[in-house]
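Quick log. Single chain, no ligands specified.
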Amino acid sequence: MTRLGIYTHNLRFYYNMLGELRRWELPVVSLKAGTDSPKDVPVIFSSRNDLLFFPNQIRGDIPIEMIRHVLPKILGEGLFGQIIIGIDPGPKPGVAVLADNILLEAREFVEMHLLREFVNQVKEHYEYEDILLRIGHGDKPNRDKIVNVLLPVGIRIIIVNEEGTSMPHQTHDNIISAARIADIDRFNRTGRKNIVGKTRRTQLEEEFVTIKNYI
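-> predicted structure:
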């Protein structure tokens, strides 16, 4: 089992890093000075001000940026070939990030400026060769608003037919639909799967390859 290490004397950085790793549900181990890096720890996170260096160390100040930066290495790749950001348009658009067919992140936003900020962070933080946006064709007024908000980010945008991606939900789930839109080619081949009675997390882990498949 792969674990991610934290070595730091900065308590604020430690608790922020620990909280972010737990939010991603990534296993973590705290390291002390004088100990060697365990073989099952491919990455050690430290603040910029820590004095001790490790061969597999990444140093920084913002935990989520650091995690996104090293995810390809954690998943056994030098960098991702392609990142696809799927968006289910609506008053509360769902957003999902798919990298080389692995679902990395999935969220929902109420405010358009927060959606744009998230998409821009994905563009800036990850290591990849190509990136594109897939936006569902439904809800034209909100779809057009989202397109206009995201055009300045500078990512290629493709409008896709999202038919079937919203079913068979008991209530519409923007996040699951966004993940299906990101992975629309596979979804169109395999069809929709019943999610009635399942939690969102369970459905995502059953329907998509996630980080848990590698950790």
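Residues 4-74 form one domain.
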